[in-house]
């Protein structure tokens, strides 16, 4: 736990400007840029070739920004869905109809159409039934309604009673075996609703979630994983606050080790949500988080087939993407890249002060020598998304869900064998 102390914000601003410059130059490859970086590093007292590491005070400011606001924490509990009772609901249709009935303004709007693409694979190299995994940043209710400035989105589309219906429908219409979610600030709702469909779930909150500084919040946001308890047994659960140059950040990772009840095959599944915001320094910071994430996962994967899902807040051109796909001790590849390239977008939104933003920042990485991808869920078409983008009356988040079907490869062995 970091000790509280006073910060000179003007000094932090100067330090941030310097760090951003050095981070920008360090990402360049030209000899001239490298010489400038080396000269500036000498001025700062760094050894030749020593990578620049921002001052600890600046790191604390960057990775735990919530702690440095003038706002007061509002420590609410996850209680805003206690009006719902799911005890007598059995089928998926009953569940959705019940949720809709609790929303007096339900417009019966249809979700955006989605289609799957088949990925060519060798059927002789796989065994068992596929495991369908869904990855989705569902958009924190507190942030989406009060902080993110979705100026083109109708206000009623951001109301929780509307969003929670579409959120469940987007998940359940694809019937995933495992669900990896980020920005979860209504875990109680998801846990009780999905339990009617034979899902068990676990949740880990951010240490200093920005949600708890917002009035009428429903507690901190964080990452969650749900799995079908009639198909898998839970063997292990681990979580970690990701570090950046040994400083604890505000981002977390959740990891489960599951065993398929029918085949006894074991699977390691992890999810995370890396630091947001643009700039070379933040890009470097995300890369450090990615390195820590890989070490954390490898310490528990134990040679099991592994899947890593999350919102990495980084385009494929950022260093953390290469870091995830070039790890020597945990060889991973991107499931969606198998279609030829990453999607053009996994998020498409319009924000006040920022304008229209279309980018690819969500991924599903997997151990390619142990698993085979057979299908992926395509991103929706622009005409179906609509000119106001998302979130909208037809989609509850500013990120689109990703889904992949994975087979175990025949040469995959259990850890205990």
Account of the protein in words:
There is one protein chain. With 417 residues, this protein is an alpha+beta fold. The chain has helices spanning 9-26, 31-43, 56-63, 92-101, 141-146, 160-172, 187-195, 280-301, 319-325, 382-385, and strands at residues 116-118, 126-137, 178-184, 199-205, 222-228, 232-244, 247-260, 266-273, 306-311, 333-334, 347-351, 355-359, 362-366, 371-377, 402-409. The strands form three sheets. A seven-stranded mixed beta sheet has the order 1-14-15-2-3-5-4, covered by helices on one side. A hairpin with a 3-residue loop joins strand 11 (347-351) and strand 12. The longest helix is centred in the C-terminal third of the chain and has 22 residues, at 280-301. It is globular and about 70 Å long. The two termini are 40 Å apart.
Descriptive tags:
seven-stranded mixed sheet, 10 helices, single chain, 417 residues, alpha+beta
Helical residue percent band:
25-40%
- State Rg: 22 Å
Count of DSSP helices? 10
For the biggest sheet, the summary is: 7 strands, mixed
What is the strand arrangement across the widest sheet?
Answer: 1-14-15-2-3-5-4
Mean pLDDT: 89
Assembly classification: single chain
Residue stretches low in confidence (pLDDT < 50, at least 5 long) are 1-5
Question: Whole-Å distance between the termini?
Answer: 40 Å
Order of helices and strands: HHHHEEHHEHEEEEEHEHEEEEEHE
Strand content: 25-35%
The helix/strand class is alpha+beta
Cα shape: globular
């Amino acid at each position: 736990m970091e000790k509280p102390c006073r910060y000179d914000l003007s000094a932090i601003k100067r330090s941030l400007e310097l760090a951003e410059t050095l981070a920008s130059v360090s990402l360049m490859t030209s000899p001239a840029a490298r010489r400038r970086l080396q000269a500036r590093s000498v001025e700062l007292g760094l050894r030749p070739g020593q990578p620049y590491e921002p001052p600890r005070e600046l790191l604390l400011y960057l990775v735990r920004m919530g702690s440095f606001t003038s706002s007061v924490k509002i420590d609410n509990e996850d209680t805003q869905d206690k009006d719902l009772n799911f005890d007598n609901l059995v089928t998926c249709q009953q569940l959705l109809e019940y949720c809709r009935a609790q929303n007096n303004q339900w417009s019966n709007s249809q979700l955006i159409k989605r289609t799957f693409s088949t990925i060519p694979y060798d059927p002789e190299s796989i065994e068992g039934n596929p495991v369908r995994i869904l990855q989705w940043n569902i958009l924190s209710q507190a942030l989406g309604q009060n902080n993110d400035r979705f100026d083109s989105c109708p206000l009623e589309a951001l109301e929780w009673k509307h969003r929670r219906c579409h959120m469940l429908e987007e998940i359940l219409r694809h019937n995933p075996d495992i669900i990896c979610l980020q920005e979860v600030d209504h875990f109680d709702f998801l846990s009780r609703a999905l339990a009617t469909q034979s899902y068990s779930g676990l949740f880990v909150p951010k240490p200093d979630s920005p949600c708890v500084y917002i009035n009428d919040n429903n507690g901190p946001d964080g990452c969650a994983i749900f799995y079908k308890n009639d198909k898998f047994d839970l063997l292990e659960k681990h979580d970690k606050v990701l570090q950046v140059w040994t400083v604890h950040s505000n981002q977390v990772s959740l990891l489960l080790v599951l065993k398929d009840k029918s085949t006894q095959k074991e699977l390691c599944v992890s999810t995370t949500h890396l630091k947001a915001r643009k700039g070379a320094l933040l890009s470097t910071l995300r890369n450090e988080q990615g390195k820590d994430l890989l070490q954390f996962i490898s310490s528990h994967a134990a040679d099991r087939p592994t899947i890593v899902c999350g919102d990495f807040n980084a385009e494929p051109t950022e260093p953390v993407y290469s870091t995830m796909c070039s790890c020597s001790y945990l060889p991973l590849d991107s499931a969606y890249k198998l279609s030829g390239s990453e999607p053009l977008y996994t998020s498409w939104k319009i924000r006040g002060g920022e304008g229209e933003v279309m980018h690819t920042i969500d991924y599903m990485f997997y151990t390619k020598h142990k698993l085979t991808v057979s299908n992926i869920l395509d991103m929706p078409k622009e005409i179906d998304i609509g000119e106001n983008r998302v979130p909208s009356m037809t989609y509850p988040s500013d990120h689109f869900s990703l889904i992949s079907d994975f087979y175990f490869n025949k040469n995959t062995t259990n850890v205990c064998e």
